[in-house]
């Protein structure tokens, strides 16, 4: 860190950030954010715009009283009443700052301020002098600097410094600059304003074209040593430069950016989460550094690479931003390496030969569900581990059901590579499906118990069906899991049926035709009281 130049971080989450619709915060919330910013290690907290409202004045004053470490600033127009309010609000801060601004572009001067260039220059001289009599630390911002005449801008900066400004900020107020243009503006001011050595140069970039962070880096290369930014990049319109992106860019690319920001980057995630919980605005999942996907990998190829060496797909460690670990999220793009690893983490070391079938089930489930949770995985493993021989397999099924018709099910099962299909009807789709199963296997059984429950949350939850069947000799349990409850029902029934057939050695040589013969008896409703319970425990 020794030979690295220090970049001051000026956080304006509580001022420019709050100017974005939907981000208003009350006093207590602002105090919580301010103390987070202090923990993060920012150099300056812009706490608000004191003249804007009594609430804003109060917030700036309370933050000034509470914050210990960072400078506390209030924004002010180049007007005495604004400067008085700002000076009053920050006066109890251990390190107070007044931040005044006046636009310098002809567009703003002519249409908004209705001032000539000369008039504005005089106003800068007067108001900076006035402010300096209220506070020793004065920042002057030339609003819309990036669209201002460069010679005029230099004159304004020189005047502001001569009048007592200690920081000069050159905002790209409407996010119009390209990085090379912004660097040129900053470099020109830095090298051609004669008294520039008496002030720190700062940049404040908006994100209208998505360049806010790139422009901030460009500003630093041009000579800026203060960067204005906000948590998660919130702010007017498309927002400001995001603090976490700028800071992590400097840290991660230290090989070519010889700077240090003084930010404790391990506090970043906590800070972004606090902002989100206070404002109720969630962070976009793909948001750099703090989005939920920023350190998550779903694709098999990436997961495999990550398992070999995290540097293959991560340029920063999750720990460096305060996250515990990278998330290897299982989904339809995942591969067997990550799948097996996750199962092992969940305590399953399965025999090698069981993996392909299980992985196939996982992929089918993943096609239906957005994400696969640990509970989904456990359900898949548990439902597949019958312990019994797998005699009958489900190939496909179709049900036709409604409250005005008798439900009908067409079920296709396979056994020893051959397919068998049957049609059955019943009072509901589950009943019809199980009857079709019974017709195919040609081994009567009664349904003794049926339980359906959701294993996981959300609309695409896995449904779990537990059944108990009897063939008059014993009871057999089965478990089936699927996002489709009919499928879960058939699977659970087959698990029980396979146990039943395994137990009765039925599998040996029952010559079924390609299309199974239909059953006449409704064995699903039959029941044997005397049946001996020979349940097979699953799992
Ligand atoms: C680029 C930026 O982010 S600048 C900061 C933007 N933030 C905000 O505006 C949020 C807080 N603002 C407010 O609460 C209000 O706008 C107030 C209290 C500051 C002013 O309210 P009002 O007096 O009702 O004025 P209003 O907002 O309608 O218009 C702005 C006035 O300030 C003047 N003005 C704008 N910038 C400046 C400046 N830097 N210095 C002096 N006067 C300025 C405008 O010319 C206009 O003056 P006018 O009333 O004489 O025509
Ligand atoms: C008040 C100034 C610094 C500002 O927010 C801008 O120009 O974007
Ligand atoms: Mg701004």
What does this structure look like?
A hairpin with a 2-residue loop joins strand 14 and strand 15 (418-426). This protein is an alpha/beta fold. It contains 16 helices and 18 strands. It is elongated and about 100 Å long. The chain is 37% helix and 19% strand. The two termini are 56 Å apart. The protein folds into three domains: 5-279, Aldolase class I (TIM Barrel, Alpha-Beta Barrel), CATH 3.20.20; 296-384, no CATH class; 393-525, Alpha-isopropylmalate synthase LeuA, regulatory domain (Double Stranded RNA Binding Domain, 2-Layer Sandwich). Helix 1 (27-40) packs antiparallel against helix 10 (268-279) and helix 8 (212-222) packs across helix 9 (243-252). The strands form five sheets. Strands 2-3-4-5-6-7-8-9 form an eight-stranded parallel barrel, surrounded by eight helices. Strands 13-14-15 form a three-stranded antiparallel sheet. The protein binds acetyl coenzyme *A, 3-methyl-2-oxobutanoic acid and magnesium ion. Residues 16, 171, 173, 204, 206, 236 line the site of magnesium ion.
The major beta sheet can be summarized as: 8 strands, parallel, barrel
The Cα radius of gyration reads 35 Å
Strand content: 15-25%
* CATH class category of the largest domain: Alpha Beta
Q: Specify the structural class.
A: alpha/beta
Give the tally of β-strands.
Answer: 18
CATH topology annotation of the largest domain: TIM Barrel
Helical region count? 16
Spatial order of the strands in the main sheet? 2-3-4-5-6-7-8-9
Percent helix range: 25-40%
In angstroms, what separates the terminal alpha carbons? 56 Å
Region (Regulatory domain): 393-539
Subunit structure: Homodimer.
GO biological process, one term: L-leucine biosynthetic process
Pfam families: HCS_D2 (PF22617), HMGL-like (PF00682), LeuA_dimer (PF08502)
């Amino acid at each position: 860190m020794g030979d690295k130049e220090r970049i001051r971080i000026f956080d304006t989450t509580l001022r420019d950030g709050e100017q974005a619709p939907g981000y208003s915060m009350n006093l207590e919330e602002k105090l919580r954010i301010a103390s987070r910013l202090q923990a993060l290690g920012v150099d300056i907290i812009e706490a608000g715009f004191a003249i804007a409202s009594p609430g804003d004045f109060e917030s700036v004053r309370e933050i000034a009283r509470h914050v210990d470490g960072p400078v506390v600033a209030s924004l002010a127009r180049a007007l005495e009443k604004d400067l008085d309010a700002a000076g009053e609000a920050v006066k109890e801060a251990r390190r107070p700052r007044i931040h005044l601004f006046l636009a310098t572009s002809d567009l703003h001067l002519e249409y908004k301020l209705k001032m000539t260039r000369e008039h504005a220059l005089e106003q800068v001289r007067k108001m900076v002098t006035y402010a300096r009599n209220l506070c020793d630390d004065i920042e002057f911002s030339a609003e819309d600097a990036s669209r201002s005449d460069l010679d005029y801008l230099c004159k304004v900066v020189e005047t502001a410094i001569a009048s007592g400004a200690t920081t000069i900020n050159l905002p790209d107020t409407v996010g119009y600059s390209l990085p090379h243009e912004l660097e040129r503006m900053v470099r020109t001011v830095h090298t051609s304003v004669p008294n520039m050595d008496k002030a720190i140069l700062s940049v404040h970039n908006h994100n209208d074209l998505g360049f806010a962070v790139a422009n901030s880096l460009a500003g630093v290369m041009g000579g800026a040593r203060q960067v204005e930014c906000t948590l998660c990049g919130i702010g007017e319109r498309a927002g400001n430069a995001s603090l976490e992106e700028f800071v992590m860019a400097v840290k991660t690319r230290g090989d070519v950016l010889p700077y240090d920001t003084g930010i404790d980057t391990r506090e970043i995630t906590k800070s972004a989460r606090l902002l989100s919980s206070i404002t109720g605005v969630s962070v976009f999942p793909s948001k750099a550094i703090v989005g939920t996907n920023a350190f998550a990998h779903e694709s098999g190829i990436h997961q495999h690479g990550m398992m070999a060496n995290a540097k293959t797909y991560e340029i920063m460690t999750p720990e460096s931003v305060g996250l515990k670990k990278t998330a290897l999220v299982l989904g339809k793009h995942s591969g067997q390496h990550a799948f097996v690893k996750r199962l092992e983490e969940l305590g399953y070391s399965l025999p090698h030969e069981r993996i392909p079938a299980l992985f196939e089930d996982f992929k089918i489930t993943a096609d239906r569900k957005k994400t696969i949770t640990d509970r989904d995985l456990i359900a898949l493993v548990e439902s597949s581990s019958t312990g019994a021989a797998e005699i009958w397999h489900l190939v496909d099924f179709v049900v036709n059901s409604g409250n005005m018709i008798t439900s009908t099910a067409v079920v296709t099962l396979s056994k020893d590579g051959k397919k068998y299909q049957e049609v059955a009807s019943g009072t509901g789709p589950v009943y019809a499906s199980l009857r079709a199963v019974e017709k195919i296997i040609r081994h009567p059984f009664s349904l003794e118990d049926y339980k359906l429950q959701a294993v996981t949350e959300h609309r695409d939850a896995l449904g779990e069906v537990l059944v108990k069947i009897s063939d008059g000799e014993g009871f057999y349990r089965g478990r089936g899991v699927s996002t489709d409850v009919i499928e879960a029902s058939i699977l659970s029934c087959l698990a029980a049926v396979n146990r039943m057939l395994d137990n009765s050695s039925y599998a040996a040589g029952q010559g079924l035709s390609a299309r199974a013969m239909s059953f006449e008896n409704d064995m699903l409703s039959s029941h044997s009281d005397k049946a001996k319970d020979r349940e097979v425990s699953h799992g």
